[in-house]
């Protein structure tokens, strides 16, 4: 098992990116996916990262980051919108399971962001609880428009940044862990066409942001 007592946020992020690079290159190793690993995990889990991402079916976390059982503590919602259940799940992964890394994963062609843009720009309505998703994405869309941006990638990046900021603002446990250097937070934007994950923003990690993503 991964030693959560010694793994740093930076090392955890390196592991995550290495897996994505294998996936992009078409050379996945499929680690920790056998019967031995399954047996090892029966007593306890020690994920090295909490991954909070969009529910889009094209973003299967263990596949695009080439990981296996017990590696990632995954939380997913449409448009990676966060309510109390999400915040509690992220805090559980950090405070109870000891994961040193929290990842927010957005992606291009996000349906939740597109629906929100349509609602803001054209007044296109949404029914049921989809409207709740749109309302939670709206601040990101409004901020992007206020900054004068019009490209789809700009809206995705802003929503990722907004989600990272919201997690740290609303979760004292996460913010304190970042301030103490125990946990790093990174926002990534995933490109559907080539499978690459690009850094949008970081907290508690010295990683250059790829703002073009």
Structural description of this entry:
The chain is α/β, with parallel strands linked by helices and 213 residues long. The protein has a single domain, classed as Beta-carbonic Anhydrase, Chain A (3-Layer(aba) Sandwich). 45% of the residues lie in helices and 15% in strands. The chain has a 5-stranded mixed beta sheet with strand order 2-1-3-4-5, sandwiched between helices. The longest helix is centred in the last third of the chain and has 19 residues, at 152-170. The mean pLDDT is 94. Catalyzes the reversible hydration of carbon dioxide to form bicarbonate. InterPro entries: Carbonic_anhydrase, Carbonic_anhydrase_CS, Carbonic_anhydrase_sf. It catalyses: hydrogencarbonate + H(+) = CO2 + H2O.
Keyphrases for this structure?
zinc, 5 strands, EC 4.2.1.1, 213 residues, 45% helix, Carbonic_anhydrase, 5-stranded mixed sheet, lyase, alpha/beta, carbonic anhydrase, Beta-carbonic Anhydrase, Chain A
Annotate the secondary structure layout.
Layout: H1 9-25, H2 35-40, E1 49-54, H3 61-64, E2 72-77, H4 84-96, E3 101-107, H5 111-122, H6 130-146, H7 152-170, H8 172-179, E4 184-190, E5 197-203
Parallel strand pairs: 1-2, 1-3, 3-4
Antiparallel strand pairs: 4-5
Catalytic activity: hydrogencarbonate + H(+) = CO2 + H2O
Function: Catalyzes the reversible hydration of carbon dioxide to form bicarbonate.
InterPro entries: Carbonic_anhydrase, Carbonic_anhydrase_CS, Carbonic_anhydrase_sf
């Amino acid at each position: 098992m991964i030693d959560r007592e010694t793994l740093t946020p930076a090392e955890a992020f390196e592991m995550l990116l290495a897996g994505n690079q294998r996936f992009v290159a078409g050379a996945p190793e499929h680690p920790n996916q056998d019967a031995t690993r399954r047996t090892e995990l029966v007593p306890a889990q020690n994920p090295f990262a909490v991954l909070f991402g969009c529910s889009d079916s094209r973003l299967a976390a263990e596949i695009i980051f080439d990981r296996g059982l017990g590696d990632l503590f995954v939380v997913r919602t449409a448009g990676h919108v966060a309510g109390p259940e999400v915040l509690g799940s992220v805090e559980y992964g950090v405070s109870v399971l000891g994961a040193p890394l929290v990842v927010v994963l957005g992606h291009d062609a996000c349906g939740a962001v597109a629906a929100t843009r349509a609602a803001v720009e054209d007044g296109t309505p949404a029914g049921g609880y989809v409207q709740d998703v749109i309302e939670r994405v709206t601040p990101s869309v409004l901020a992007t428009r206020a900054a004068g941006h019009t490209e789809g990638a700009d809206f995705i990046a802003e929503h990722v940044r907004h989600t990272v900021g919201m997690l740290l603002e609303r979760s004292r446990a996460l913010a304190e862990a970042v301030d103490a250097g125990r946990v790093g937070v990174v926002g990534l934007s995933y490109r559907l066409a080539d499978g690459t994950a690009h850094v949008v923003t970081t907290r508690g990690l010295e990683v250059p942001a790829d703002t073009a993503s």
